[in-house]
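Why run this: before we spend reagent on co-expression, it is cheaper to look at a predicted model of the complex and decide which construct boundaries make sense. The entries below are exactly what would go into the expression plan.
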Amino acid sequence: MLSELKPTRVEDAYLRLKDEILQNRMPPGFQAPEPEIALHLGMSRTPVREALIRLESEGLVRLIPRRGALVLPVSADDMREIYEILTALEPEAAASLARKKPDAGCLQELEAITLAMESALASGDLDAWADADDRFHRKLLAMHANNRMTNFVNTLFDQVHRARMTTLRLRKPPEQSTREHREILDHIIAGDVENARKSFRAHRERAAAELLSILESYRLPAL
Amino acid sequence: MLSELKPTRVEDAYLRLKDEILQNRMPPGFQAPEPEIALHLGMSRTPVREALIRLESEGLVRLIPRRGALVLPVSADDMREIYEILTALEPEAAASLARKKPDAGCLQELEAITLAMESALASGDLDAWADADDRFHRKLLAMHANNRMTNFVNTLFDQVHRARMTTLRLRKPPEQSTREHREILDHIIAGDVENARKSFRAHRERAAAELLSILESYRLPAL
DNA sequence: TCATGCATTAATGTATACATTGTTTGAAGG
DNA sequence: CCTTCAAACAATGTATACATTAATGCATGA
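The model came back. Tokens follow.
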């Protein structure tokens, strides 16, 4: 029901290419024509082409007329665009969740993710921390029943994924972020709509400023 | 530069199908298999298929396994999703514009659109009014340099286009909307960030409530 | 040596072919 | 008359073929 009964080549190509891009095995600037990618994936151009179109619409790739597919770098300005949108949308989701008072089961899961983040911070496991961070944001969105918002924001998360992974180790331990997640969760549980919104907004604004300042101080124009 | 040098069949199919959908010549619920659409457009399945994939990613169509492309109706719940996103994003764009104090030329254009809306209201020309409304929203977004936001919001505008056209004549003359546009513009010109944001938010919240109440009172579950 | 232009190469956009598989029709049997 | 099963049909997913056209490289000439 959730996954396709029959795995199609397009889906396969899409997932594999997306994975290669997000894991930085196909780094930004990487470029290859359709036939080459098709060969690499062991299928014909047709499904590859459709997968590339999809990746392009998600902002991970650009199709350049006679040059092939280009893995897009994410510039500081892209980052600004993306964080501006996240700053507007995610707090709404959080506020709406606080209003709706979701059932205990769902909140339990958010709670577990937050605990995982806290313990990852304590043990200095940055990868686990980043994973919990990602899960928190995605879970919160998924709980707020707005599929259009969820899907769109998820594509934005994907776009900044590489940048977050890179900067993860260029900054101090993310204590503040962790505290803020806890704070947001508390407000949601308490049903405090306005504070849920505000604290999420502050969380995003601070994270964006931090990320951009890291990019600047390390002279990373794009990732 | 703006348009493609060479009009491709995919682009042609995309534009024509989108137009047919938005103009309600292919109404919600309309369904046709790829070969039929290809025949209708006078080209092979390949470009049609790519155009349909694009329309699907924009939420206008759904591709159902052995049934063909289905023109999606927009339900009240879809409307809720869409307006929630607009309510979060557009006020940010307005606020940011108020902050940036755009040059007179651009504001001139917004002013002209607002005047057009006011005179359309005065003369009772609903189509001209709706056109000015649409242009105001799109222009404001375009002025706020965030392409991701602009593109996404534009797809949402497209999705609600039919519903807006239908309800346009089921409601009282849109005096309030017109006043609100003027108010928003004034705040932007004055550089009043917070009031630009607030008045736009109020504008969207009211419009959403109005639209949904019309759907309810006329028993229109979807459009 | 460097510029110019032609020929070759190669990538895309599109058409077509084909296998797979779900749907539907119609006939046969209860 | 309704149900069941099979065969024909049809749509998709994918592969392949092909025309067009941009890029590349090489040869030619100044």
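Chain B touches chain A through 21 residues (CB under 8 Å). The longest helix of chain B spans residues 76-100. Bring this page to Monday's planning discussion.
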